[in-house]
């Protein structure tokens, strides 16, 4: 799906909501994902991010805003849209932007990140968001042709500590490097203040997932506060 430069620019300074339920959870249903995504758009989300091919398809029909799609396969190592095959399937499901693992780790299909990005660009109209875990990842992802870079894997790929909130230092480092592609803040943005801080650190746009769309975790926060 084609996302025009104007449509991408329209995300500047805005909120993107990630709507994901995990395997075995009560809300793990593509129709539910689409309803949650539509609710987020009603609340002002400028784009949504969803996991799974059926989720992308259902959500595309339910919202008018750009859809960032991904396909998680497993939960260790390279698992966010790990191969070109996964990425093309996400693009074919209708995602405007395909989010892929954007780390410097070896990919399961043996392709480089540059080959993967080139393959997505050659075979689809989707833009590519590289989910990175460090400044070095972001630099390599930009060199590889990624259209957007995100801090999604900061604290999960072993290169950065897992901060309790967003990794604002990493955001500031990537922003200061001036790579020339939109920098998406993602990961552990749990409050409106965190979202504001992420923009102030230099993010182009901010993705919030758990704190808006994962009721089991949010409930746990409240339960813990009462314990
Ligand atoms: C590391 C990983 O697998 N991140 C995933 C990527 O899509 C999701 O599980 C996160 O919910 C998403 O990145 C949004 O972050 P948060 O839920 O912290 O706002």
From TrEMBL:
This protein's GO CC annotations: cytosol
GO biological process, one term: carbohydrate metabolic process
Organism superkingdom: Bacteria
Gene3D superfamilies the UniProt entry points to: Aldolase class I
SUPFAM superfamilies: Ribulose-phoshate binding barrel (SSF51366)
Enzyme Commission number, as recorded: 5.1.3.9
Enzyme class: isomerase
InterPro entries the UniProt entry points to: Aldolase_TIM, NanE, RibuloseP-bd_barrel
Keyword Signal applies: no
Keywords: Carbohydrate metabolism, Isomerase
Pathway membership, UniProt: Amino-sugar metabolism; N-acetylneuraminate degradation; D-fructose 6-phosphate from N-acetylneuraminate: step 3/5
Spans traversing the lipid bilayer: none
One term of GO molecular function: N-acylglucosamine-6-phosphate 2-epimerase activity
Reaction(s) this enzyme catalyzes, per UniProt: an N-acyl-D-glucosamine 6-phosphate = an N-acyl-D-mannosamine 6-phosphate
Residue ranges that the Swiss-Prot or TrEMBL entry lists as coiled coil: none
Pfam families in the record: NanE
Function of the molecule: Converts N-acetylmannosamine-6-phosphate (ManNAc-6-P) to N-acetylglucosamine-6-phosphate (GlcNAc-6-P).
Family of this protein: Belongs to the NanE family.
Protein name, UniProt field: Putative N-acetylmannosamine-6-phosphate 2-epimerase
Annotated source species: Pseudarthrobacter enclensis
């Amino acid at each position: 799906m084609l996302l025009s430069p104007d449509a991408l620019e329209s995300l500047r300074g805005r909120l993107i909501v990630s709507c994901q339920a995990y395997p075995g959870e009560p809300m793990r249903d593509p129709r539910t994902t689409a309803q949650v995504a539509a609710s987020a758009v009603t609340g002002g989300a400028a784009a949504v991010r969803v996991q799974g091919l059926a989720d992308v398809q259902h959500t595309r029909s339910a919202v008018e805003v750009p859809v960032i799609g991904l396909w998680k396969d497993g939960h260790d190592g390279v698992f966010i849209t790990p191969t070109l095959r996964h990425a093309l399937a996400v693009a074919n499901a209708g995602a405007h932007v395909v989010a892929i693992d954007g780390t410097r780790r070896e990919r399961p299909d043996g392709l480089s990140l540059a080959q993967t990005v080139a393959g997505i660009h050659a075979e689809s109209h989707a833009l590519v968001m590289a989910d990175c875990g460090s400044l070095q990842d972001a630099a390599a992802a930009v060199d590889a042709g990624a259209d957007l870079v995100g801090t999604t894997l900061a604290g999960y790929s072993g290169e950065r500590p897992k901060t309790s909130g967003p990794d604002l230092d990493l955001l500031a480092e990537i922003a200061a490097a001036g790579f020339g592609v939109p920098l998406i803040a993602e990961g552990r943005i749990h409050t409106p203040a965190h979202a504001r801080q992420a923009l102030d650190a230099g993010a182009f746009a901010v993705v919030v997932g758990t704190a808006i769309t994962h009721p089991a975790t949010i409930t746990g926060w409240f339960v813990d506060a009462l314990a």
